[in-house]
Amino acid sequence: MGSSQGGFTPLSRLTLRNHGWIRVRVRVSRIWVASNPNTGQEYGLDSLLIDDEGVTMQARAPPSDMKRLKHQLVEGKVYALSNFMVCTKMKCYMACRNGLMIYMGGQTVVDEISDDAGSSIPLHSFEFVDFGDVPSRNKDNSLFTDVIGQIVSIEEEGQAWKWEAYRNMSFRNLHLRDVRGRPMNVALYGDLGRNFDAEKVAKKGRDFSIVAVFAGMLVQLYKGIGFTVRSTSASKYYLDLDILEVQELRASLADQHKPIDRLPCQLQNPINPTELVDNSLRTVEQLKSLNPHELHSRTKFLCIVTLKGINCTKDWWYKLDAVMEDATGAMNIVIFDKPARKLVGVSAEELVEETTGEQFSAIISSHQSRALVVAPHRGGFMVADVLNDDALQASSSVKMESKGVGESSQDEENMEIKEEREPKRQKNARGNEAEQTDSE
């Protein structure tokens, strides 16, 4: 493996192995905590690195090393890295197309290099997607999407309900257009949208066009909106960045002085949690009186129950045939891997080799009440989600009352993402159309 001048190895020459004696000189172009904003779970500290050759590679540090590296790595600065491991890229949430990535651990050495020595390394790297190709990335999370366009309008902040977080999540929609005049919707969730200074941007837009870059995004088909480039925990936006692509786009705009429109939020679906609980809460006795075959497939109920155990005789690593109980009775319920993972903290696949079914049953069984989202499934019911402690507290404060059975209220039908086929002209994109409630 060769080294460039100064004893640094280019990213292009790294191979799959531990590299204790190899040093690379890279700029941290972007850095973010890879996380699920709905649950707060953090997966690691990710960064996009660039070297002197302009080659990019993603790096990750596990949660155990995040605190140290958060203080050592600063976005935009140049570092010499050593004692790291090179591994195959992740299957999803990659910021560049490089087939390899760097894994930084407790032994990784980070030395800052003066900016003069690293001035040849670019500050930014993007893999822009043409607006016409955005639909083909619908719900594809293998590679983040970067887009560039002129801001033509900005909506006011909106609110959308997220079951996983059991709260309303804020978002802001923006509308772009490219050099051909084609439109594109952008949705910024959480702090990214809340901290977007719409007034300041619109004011600047009175004098000249604002060209924005949105990086680390995903594509979602939203009902009533269309294909949207939405933010993730990796997302960043840049306004009037000093790069060639921004300069070329601005020079090619037909109307460079069009003011930015300020619009009300066009589509939002906030929910009052108290009303939600009141409309959806069911006891075990009430659930048992329902005919699952007569319920809408998107119907969801909320149950406050304890889990008493599972059937350990077969397939417990694939699905859990569990028993849930409250003061009104007990009933069987099916729990697949995602909700089961929330209950125990790890996936069934990670437990199957070291844990017996009886041990797993003991793990999930307790006298602790749990807030479960229950949905009809093949003539019975399954656990669609497990809510957090805040949800349980809110649910426990609501008085349980008997309700009519066999029907789902409009609120209940609107609790989850709705899927529809997209137009035939978009056959190359997966056509799952969702309410605007997503934030990965």
From TrEMBL:
Chain positions covered by the region annotation Disordered: 396-440
Pfam annotation, one family: DUF223
InterPro entries listed in its UniProt record: NA-bd_OB-fold, RFA1B/D_OB_1st
Basic and acidic residues bias spans: 415-433
Domain spans labelled Replication protein A 70 kDa DNA-binding subunit B/D first OB fold: 8-111
Entry protein name: Replication protein A 70 kDa DNA-binding subunit B/D first OB fold domain-containing protein
